[in-house]
C-alpha cells in the first residue's frame, strides 16, 4: 500500500470522506439501471411458482430465484418478478462484462458466426478453418508469460482434471527417459495396476477448491459437502497460510505462518518420496476463493515455486476464479513476479470457456492422451476474443483497480464502524472479501438482507462474504454496495 493511501485511510472518519478524497474514474458508457429496485419478497411469487414446476422435474436445493436474462443489463440482474439487483457475484464469478454486453451481442448476432453457433465440432478431430486464428486472438493473446501452448476445455473442473493428467504423463515420460512405455506398462494399466498405473501423487492445500470431478476432488478441501461419500486418493495436503489482518500489524506472525506452511511442503515431499509415492506436482490457487478468500504473500508463492523446482515437480496455478483481470492484473500470479513461470495455468469462468496454458514440456507425446469429444467450444472463443478486445480498449483493468479501491476502503470503514460484526477486509482489485464475526449464521443473514436491498452477493468459507463483480463494476457501484451493507449492519446492530 502506498504512503498516500495509508495517509488517506488514517484520516478518514466516515464513508462520506472516503468518497470525497478518492476520485472516481470517468464512468463507462453502459446501458443499465440507475440502481437496485425490489418490488416483492425474494423469491417472488413467479419464482416460487417456477420453483414448484422445476422441483417436480429436478432437485432445486440451490435455486435462489428465477431470472429474466433478456431484461438484465450491465451490472444488474433482473428476476422474473421484476426485481432488479446490483449483482456483485455475477453467476459465480463467471461473467466478465456483465449482462448483455454489446460486444458479446455483436458476436452472437453476426451472421458470419452462425455456423460456429450451430455446429459444435469435435475440435480434436475436425476443427474449423478459423480455429487457429480464434485461439491466437483470444487465448494466446493473453497467455501467461512463458506459456506458449494451450489446451482448450469446457469448464474449470475438466481443465484441472486434464492438467493433472498432463503432469503425470510428463513425469513418467521423464522417468522413461523419453522411451515408449513397456509392454508390461501397457498391459497393467488396463487393470489399474503398477507399473502401468503408477502410484504417483499431487500436492494440494487445506482450504483448496479445484473442482468436483473425481480427480479434482482429491485436491479439493474447502467443504465436506463436496467430498462426502466419494472415494478419493491419498495425496499429500499441505497447510495453507492463515494470515492475520491488518497485514501491516502482523508482519512477523504472518511470516512465521508462511514459513510453517512451506516447511510442511518440504516435509511432505520427503515423506511421500521415501514411501515410494513421489509428488509429481503442486496445485495452488492465488487466492483460495471457495475456501474463504485466503491469501498468501508473493514471497510465499515464489518460494513454493522454488520448492517444486528443487524436487523436480510441476507447478500448477489454478486461475479459474482469479484470472481475467479481477485482481487488477490479467492473471493474479503476475503479481508474484516469478523468475520461473508456472508450468501450467488453468482457466475457465470469465474466459467463457476452459483449458490450460502450459510450457512445451507438457505437450502430450501422442494423440488421444488429453482428449474429449468437444475440447471446448469455438463460439466461446469468439466471445472470449471480444472480451479481450473490450478489456484492452476500455482499460478495464484500471477500472477494476479503482473500483476495487473504493469497495475495499468502504468495507474497511464498515469493519471499524461495526467491530462486533465484521473483520478482515481484504482483496486484490475487485476480488474482495470480508469476514463475519458471527460465523455462517450471521454471514447468511447479511447475504439475505443484502438481497432484500437489491444486492446479489455470495459467501465462501465458513463466515466470509465475497465480492465477484464484473470488470465493468465501477466506483459508484461500489458505493451502492457499501451503503446497502451499512444499512443492513445498522439494522442488525
Q: Can you describe this structure?
A:
This protein is α/β, with parallel strands linked by helices and 493 residues long. The strands form 3 sheets. Strands 3-9-8-7-6-4-5 form a 7-stranded mixed sheet, with helices on both faces. Strands 10-11-14-13 form a 4-stranded antiparallel sheet. Helix 13 links the parallel strand 6 and strand 7.
- Ends distance: 31 Å
Show unreliable segments.
1-26
Percent helix: 25-40%
Rounded mean pLDDT is 94
Using DSSP, what is the number of strands? 14
Q: Which shape, going by the Cα principal axes? A: globular
Which strand order do you get reading across the main beta sheet? 3-9-8-7-6-4-5
Structural class: alpha/beta
SS element count, helices: 17
* Global Rg: 23 Å
Defining key terms:
globular, 493 residues, alpha/beta, single chain, 17 helices, disordered N terminus, four-stranded antiparallel beta sheet
Secondary structure layout plus pairing:
Blueprint: H1 3-11, H2 15-21, H3 45-55, E1 76-78, E2 84-87, H4 90-93, H5 102-109, H6 114-118, H7 131-138, E3 149-153, H8 156-175, H9 183-188, E4 201-205, H10 214-217, H11 224-227, E5 237-238, H12 251-274, E6 279-284, H13 298-310, E7 314-318, E8 344-347, E9 354-358, H14 378-393, H15 396-417, E10 422-428, E11 431-436, H16 439-452, E12 455-456, E13 458-460, E14 464-467, H17 475-492
Parallel strand pairs: 2-12, 4-5, 4-6, 6-7, 7-8
Antiparallel strand pairs: 1-2, 3-9, 8-9, 10-11, 11-14, 13-14
In a nutshell, what does this entry contain?
The chain has helices at residues 3-11, 15-21, 45-55, 90-93, 102-109, 114-118, 131-138, 156-175, 183-188, 214-217, 224-227, 251-274, 298-310, 378-393, 396-417, 439-452, 475-492; strands at residues 76-78, 84-87, 149-153, 201-205, 237-238, 279-284, 314-318, 344-347, 354-358, 422-428, 431-436, 455-456, 458-460, 464-467. By secondary structure, it is an alpha/beta fold.
